[in-house]
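Case study.
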Amino acid sequence: KAGVTQTPRYLIKTRGQQVTLSCSPISGHRSVSWYQQTPGQGLQFLFEYFSETQRNKGNFPGRFSGRQFSNSRSEMNVSTLELGDSALYLCASSLWQGGRGYTFGSGTRLTVV
Amino acid sequence: KQEVTQIPAALSVPEGENLVLNCSFTDSAIYNLQWFRQDPGKGLTSLLLIQSSQREQTSGRLNASLDKSSGRSTLYIAASQPGDSATYLCAVDNTNAGKSTFGDGTTLTVKP
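After joint prediction, the assembly is written out as follows.
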């Protein structure tokens, strides 16, 4: 079966712009979680969506937002980009909410210049 | 708040050696613990998932153990190969946290 698909794989944006990243989970998985990975901070939890509702949120500013559609696909949006937002953004899907065994996508590498 | 620590941060071994990676966590009320592998610039590949009721899981040359009472998990890699070179992360899923907490990983280099 198809894995977790993240698009695009790479993005270069300018400070102040906004960006939208997409994640399609494994078929049948209803939970999608987003993580930010940077060399200095490691993997940091952004938020989790389950059945189109945000169930959990990490400690990130309001510039980071997301949503989930009825087909479980999820998008995350970052507005007013800052240099510090440069990171690998990883999406993970699981059958149930709250982790319970993640399958990760390949990630989107965002570079803010 | 769950804290997950992985020691050492980096490890270099000759090919063929057996090795153990460590993961410790502070809150033992966990649902499961998952070990991942990450190659540079890539996503995470799940290696083993241990439910809280289990003591260990095995897959090929990999064996992961879990001791909730001491807050520790180990990943044992037998007969290491250069292709095992990667960063290994453990992730702890707490019962009431609604998310997994990751360690910073151990970067393994296996020299031919």
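Observations recorded in class. DSSP finds no helices and eleven strands in chain B. Chain B touches chain A through 23 residues (CB under 8 Å). We will return to this complex in the next lecture.
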